[in-house]
Amino acid sequence: MSEDKEEPIVTKTFPDFNFAEGELLLINKPYKWTSFDVVGKIRNSLKPLKLKVGHAGTLDPLATGLLILCTGKLTKQIDTFQAEEKEYTGTMVLGATTPSFDLETVADQEFPLDGITEEAIYAATAPFIGDIQQYPPAHSAVKVNGERLYVKARRGEETELRLRNVTVSAFEITRIALPEIDFRIVCSKGTYIRSLISDFGKQLNNGAYLSKLTRTRSGNFLLENAFEVADLVSYLRLKKE
Fold first, then answer.
1. What is its EC number (predicted)?
2. For residue 230, what pLDDT is reported?
3. Residue 170 sits in a domain of what CATH number?
4. Range of 76's domain?
């Protein structure tokens, strides 16, 4: 009778980083972390080195997925990385709306789903493909007069929102299990997926809000190549010992 062989332990390999000269780090942002939380965690792990650390493209706290961090001299190229095309996958809930367009706030309106067909759902994506205009959510990090919109929204203040031009290269419906609908979106910098989903609900004479969002790609960088925050932090701490 042959002995059972032990499965090998596979550990993720890390390159020899040169953070001062500049490193581009692909991070899988955890759920409910802000993009600034990730930057702060990595910056603290690099102490006592006094290095600049910044991110290219903010992700909402309730979103997960690819966040690009730059260190040292590479922070000068953040705008270049931030300008690249993005890809997202996610889930929306049809038949209700929330003030924040996602799960940050509770539903304020509900709509019947009677009569909404799969054909209508697929067809409703068409107006949102190409060069479009959209308003940012009232609960967003956009600054108006030096203050972020979500701060004003949480105080109950209304702010006049400005239309922005964005490009959506692809808007695919990948699963329909009402009230949930899964999707894949490829878009330009500055596109608010929450606003897109809210407008999608209106296109169906209904309501919709975002319940799950993951950034899977930014430019040529893929989520599958990203580090988990905890793994990278553990590695950086070991290197200092």
1. 5.4.99.25
2. 93
3. 3.30.2350.10
4. 24-82+220-240
